[in-house]
Design the sequence.
């Protein structure tokens, strides 16, 4: 009974965690709240759907079972590239004004939502492919090339190549997968491969395999991002810029590159979260909106610039959601006094559980306004 | 972001007002009933936009939850109308209660039998809720994006609550007002709607004068001080919490009035008023019009909504693209809004670009001087 509740809570929390991880990193580094984060998740979910359909083609049919794993990488790349584009075009202009960034990213989220509604997914994929090529092709040339030719031409020609490749691949996908060739605002479904359906029995309780898979995805993402931030050179630079941007700039760290990289990784993680979300229910243009406020709550509760806070906050919220939403306290303590049990029954739905959790968070913030693990410092502005 | 405090000159303000008022007076005879009703609704949205301008343009608090107060005002008005015109239904209570097996009016609706209480409740209740929420948040010096996120979460919480409570407030169906009676006439009837249009227009003007009065003098200066440098205001001996709470509840009260007027003109209030996009749209009306210029909020609200209804009638799918583009454009290219652009260097720069106006010779110290003077004005 208790194990069941704990598992449910961890399952809810791990979706929140993988979704909030990217948001927390970006927010910690740049103080930017990305309202388009939910839509980047949505892109990840759609990437899973497209990957699934492509793996149904005769050529790739034998490998169909592995499509979920492949789509995790695809989703990371797709959302990451869209995030990088967003950073380079919009957000870069707005550093130092977080409220304006909030509004601009909301505009981006509206555009992305309408984009998946009114553009056929095949051509959308083509567009993303051309973005990937266009952004990364210029970086593969060796420094020698960069010195000998004016780099503008290299960039220009690679964008031409990229757009050609995008149009071709979009057309190829559209002609081979008929489901992707028309625009539709309807929700689509991702079906898990055979090995992920059904349940596993641990200690006498049955757990759905998809939920376990999500927990594993989350675990791997958290470990990978921790290793990256703590062990790699770029991770160290990111942490340095998070702590003190001006000082890091003075010491020769390219804060511009750090910003792009961080935003890309944060967005990529949103894509991974999208894969997890697509396994839970149907995928639609509004799928991100269901999770985004939960992610914000995690960031507010967890505090800035500390992954541990994010982890604790998301599992805390997940377990509380399950405890309140399913009315589990009643089954643990059946003969509690009547007014108390009535109150618990009143809050025992998913939507009312949200109400309760928000109230709890506001109460919590009265005691610890900067979250669970605040950054130490003596600044007036924090 | 560095943000100059805009002061529209008296002449410009007067000209814009003359245009607005002559348009409002002419509207009932030019526009067909349907369009007139739409204009009335959008004018009522201008009131909530004034509130957003007070808290965002002047105090620097970006609230993404004004929909809460808007809807609360709407619910208060709708419930009063439902209760007064429920005499033919069983138990003398609004019809929908019967559907869920509720025989007695829930106790908190009881005072709404009185018209005076309802009239007060329309703005007092939202103002109180805003004040309470604001106090709890501001007390801990939660500000900036944290504040925005918390207001958005609060909005979602209220939405969930109102959406789920069928027995108390008819849940997701909302409360209808167009078939209810007021002064022995149907609220949805043409003559009543015409009256509401005039009432809305009057209240918009009154709300503008009120907001103007609020931001005038020392109180307004402190608000602007909080926007530009809050710690400094605190160190000077003022308590920002008090001022922020007051202005936030004023904005809440304005939102409540606006919601009530919008409800009686659109014929229904439902939890849809508390969705996330609607509340963020309110911010963009102000941003497009020009934040910190109260007139800009009114113009922004009316024009954007009118544009929205025209565009969505012609090309339903394209409005989202336009709106998204508008958000991005306004914050990157027009941070001071259209009025700010017109009032500032905008038109001159545009003419210069096409060679229609001579470039002004300038030298760095002049620009620095202008800047410091701008700071002093703030």
Sequence:
């Amino acid at each position: 009974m208790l194990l069941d509740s704990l598992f449910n809570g961890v399952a809810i929390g791990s979706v929140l965690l993988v979704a909030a991880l990217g948001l927390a990193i970006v927010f910690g580094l740049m103080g930017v709240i990305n309202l388009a984060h939910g839509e980047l998740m949505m892109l990840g979910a759609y990437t899973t759907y497209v990957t699934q359909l492509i793996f149904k083609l005769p050529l790739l049919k034998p490998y169909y079972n592995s499509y979920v794993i492949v789509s995790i990488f695809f989703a990371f790349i797709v959302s990451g590239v869209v995030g990088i584009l967003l950073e380079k075009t919009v957000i870069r202009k707005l550093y130092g004004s977080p409220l304006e960034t909030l509004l601009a990213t909301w505009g981006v989220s509206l555009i992305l939502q309408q984009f998946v509604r009114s553009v056929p997914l095949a051509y959308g994929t083509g567009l993303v492919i051309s973005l990937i090529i266009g952004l990364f092709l210029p970086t593969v040339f060796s420094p020698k090339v960069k010195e000998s030719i004016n780099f503008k031409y290299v960039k220009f020609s690679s964008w031409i190549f990229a757009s050609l490749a995008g149009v071709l691949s979009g057309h190829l996908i559209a002609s081979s997968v008929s489901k992707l060739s028309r625009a539709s605002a309807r929700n689509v479904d991702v079906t898990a491969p055979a090995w992920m359906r059904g349940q596993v029995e641990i200690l006498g309780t049955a757990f759905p395999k998809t939920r376990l898979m999500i927990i594993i995805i989350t675990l791997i993402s958290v470990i990978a991002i921790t290793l990256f931030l703590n062990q790699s050179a770029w991770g160290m630079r990111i942490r340095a810029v998070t702590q003190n941007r001006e000082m890091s700039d003075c010491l020769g760290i390219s804060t511009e590159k750090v910003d792009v990289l961080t935003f890309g990784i944060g967005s990529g993680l949103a894509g991974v979260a999208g894969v997890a979300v697509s396994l839970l229910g149907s995928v639609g243009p509004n799928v991100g909106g269901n999770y985004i406020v939960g992610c914000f709550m995690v960031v507010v509760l967890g505090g800035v610039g500390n992954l541990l806070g994010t982890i604790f906050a998301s599992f805390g919220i997940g377990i509380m959601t399950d405890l309140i939403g399913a009315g589990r306290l009643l089954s643990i303590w059946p003969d509690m006094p009547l007014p108390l049990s009535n109150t618990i029954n009143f809050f025992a739905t998913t939507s009312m559980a949200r109400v309760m959790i928000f109230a709890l968070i506001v109460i919590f913030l009265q005691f610890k306004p900067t979250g669970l693990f605040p950054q130490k410092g003596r600044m007036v502005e924090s | 972001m560095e943000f100059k405090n805009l002061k529209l000159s008296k002449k410009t303000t007067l000209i814009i007002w003359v245009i607005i008022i002559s348009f409002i007076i002419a509207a009932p005879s030019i526009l067909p009933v349907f369009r007139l009703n739409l204009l009335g609704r959008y004018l009522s949205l201008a009131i909530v936009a004034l509130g957003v301008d007070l808290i965002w343009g002047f105090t620097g608090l970006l609230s993404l939850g004004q929909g809460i107060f808007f809807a609360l005002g709407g619910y208060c008005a709708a419930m009063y109308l439902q209760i007064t015109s429920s005499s033919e239904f069983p138990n003398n209570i609004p019809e929908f209660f019967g559907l869920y097996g509720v025989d007695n009016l829930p106790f908190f609706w009881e005072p709404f039998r009185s018209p005076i209480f309802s009239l007060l409740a329309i703005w007092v209740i939202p103002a109180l809720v805003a004040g309470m929420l604001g106090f709890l948040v501001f007390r801990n010096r939660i500000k900036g994006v944290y504040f925005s996120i918390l207001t958005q979460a609060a909005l979602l919480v209220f939405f969930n609550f109102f959406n789920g409570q069928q027995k108390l407030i008819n849940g997701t169906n909302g409360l209808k007002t167009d078939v209810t009676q007021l002064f022995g006439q149907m609220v949805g009837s043409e003559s009543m709607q015409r009256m509401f249009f005039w009432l809305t227009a009057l209240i918009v003007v009154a709300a503008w004068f009120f907001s103007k009065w609020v931001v005038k003098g020392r109180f307004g200066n402190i608000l602007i001080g909080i926007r530009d440098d809050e710690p400094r205001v605190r160190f000077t001996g003022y308590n920002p919490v008090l001022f922020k709470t007051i202005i936030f509840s004023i904005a809440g009260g304005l939102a409540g009035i606006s919601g009530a007027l919008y409800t009686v003109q659109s014929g229904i209030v439902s939890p849809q008023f508390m969705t996330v996009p609607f509340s963020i749209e309110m911010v963009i009306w102000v941003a497009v019009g020009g934040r910190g210029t109260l007139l800009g909020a009114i113009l922004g609200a009316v024009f954007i909504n009118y544009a929205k209804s025209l565009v969505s009638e012609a090309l339903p799918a394209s409005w989202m693209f336009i709106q998204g583009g508008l958000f991005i454009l306004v914050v990157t290219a027009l941070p001071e809004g259209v009025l700010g652009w017109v009032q500032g260097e905008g038109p001159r720069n545009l003419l210069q670009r096409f060679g229609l106006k001579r470039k002004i010779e300038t030298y760095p110290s002049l620009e620095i001087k202008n800047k410091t003077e701008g700071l002093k004005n703030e």
